[in-house]
Give the backbone structure.
Amino acid sequence: NKEMISILANSVAYQAGQLFGYVLMIGTVGMFILSLIKTIVSKEKKLWVSLLVVTSLIILLGLGSAGYAVFKTMKESRGAPADDIKQGGDKVKVVRTDDNLLSFRIPKIWKQADNLHEEASLRYAHLRGEQYMLVLSEQKSDFEENTTLRNYADLCIKNTISVASKYDEGEWRESKVGGENMLRVEVDAVVDHLKIRYLLAYYETDGHFHQITTWTMPSRWKQSKPVFEAVLDSVEPVVASE
């Protein structure tokens, strides 16, 4: 499953980068302490003073970078609350699917993720927050005339089950969004030993069925679910004349 491999690779790369940074900082601090001691006790002060200055600058730079990272993380964590998505604002952007069928309001911190499903008409992710979204649209003419939105949703769910070693489906919810019918369901799955929590939505417009998939890790669900719900509530069919 390409999406799960991509998620796992991004997560591993991010954690590896953090680990390397920690090791580098610990080594620099150790060298700083050694340089400080040698500067005090050694007769060969010139070399140790130079090393002391260099390690001091590296530590200051590291502390500055760490401080900025903490500030940015705190800012991003509150940068796209559900209320902002519902009301719009400078922390939200409007995006359209590549086929120009649907529009959404999504957090500005979400970026295009071209490494997700290659056939999706919309692919966005917030890697730091481990939030992902993609949209797939299919023409109704490719299905039997009596195919309902629930029939389509059940078909899509089977594809999700097929790649999961464990699967637990919640209650289905039906609503009107943008004047059209939407079905939603929460799903817990294990794919390639990775736990995933989905909020799946299936949307019907004139001539098309749409599969809207949002997901994150269980540890990020509490923060992510309100954002996902608000994004789904924002969907609107694009007027053909536009």
